[in-house]
Amino acid sequence: MKIQSSGRTEESRAAIQELATFLERFGEVKEASENILIIDGREAVLVAFNSQSYYQRKGYYWFSLAKTKYHQMLKWNEDHSWMVLICGSQGRYFIPLGQVKSLLSRMPSNRRDGRWDLYIRLEGEQAYFGVTEIRNHLDVTEQLHHFEQIWGKPNVEEIYVDEAVYIPDSLPEPNRKTGNVVRVVRDTVQSRIVKELYSYKCQICGWVAYSPRLKNLWYCEAHHVQPLGKKYKGPDHVSNILALCPTHHCLMDLGVLAIEPSSLKVLVNSRQQESSEGSVLTLRREHGLNQKYLRFHFDNIYIGDYHSGEISLLDTNPEI
What we know:
By secondary structure, the protein is an alpha+beta fold. It has helices at 10-23, 52-58, 67-73, 97-104, 146-152, 188-197, 246-254, 291-300, and strands at residues 29-33, 36-39, 43-50, 61-65, 81-87, 91-96, 116-123, 126-131, 133-139, 209-210, 218-219, 221-224, 241-244, 257-259, 266-268.
């Protein structure tokens, strides 16, 4: 995407454009208004920039936050909102909205026009975020490039794959061997968001299972369109997840079935008999599914020979 250039220095515009390009790896990026970026319609980011030359003169990075921007931020979902402070050549600090609010609520604006002065001060390898007075600060050292950490290294382990349960049977105990297994740790929150959005129904066929043995009573599976493994390096985020029944999850993984990126039609390899062929993927606008992951699956995993177009998902979505 191209960042608007009005009211910005060339250095500032280039830095924010670089940030927007980086964020595109996590989903579609839109500039809702000046310095406010939206990723996949879910993550909201307010961006501020300060130059390296200012830091060299003053010894800290300085930013200004207008009250109008702050009141706009207060309407955002706190769990999916960030202030990104770009500090010259030192990097980007992703400050969660909750931390920004915790400081601003204690410090009145210090400008006649209602603005707050914000600071990033560095002490060796430590970084501190301050408001109005540089000594009123929070340690934000660990929030350098924090966005990558949040989506690249989820900290919630999926103990039961797709929340299925183990139901014992009456067969004899099998022989067992102990070994080490290395697997991707998944963020169950991201999977659950998608499942709940579709009421645990498969987006291809509408199948859903009910059982009192299940944690959520209803069952479907989370399919990562661009797989998470080292070979593919897909993100563990709603923009890359579909809610599918076990059959269609398996067929997508095997590359027997794919979703045509532009029309959202279900494609099936000619050797496979599948009743869903030609149907259209159920897709809610608020899902934020990113077309590039469908394209990745189509180009790298699907074993068919169908040739697709390339247009915006939002122009072709069947709405519910």
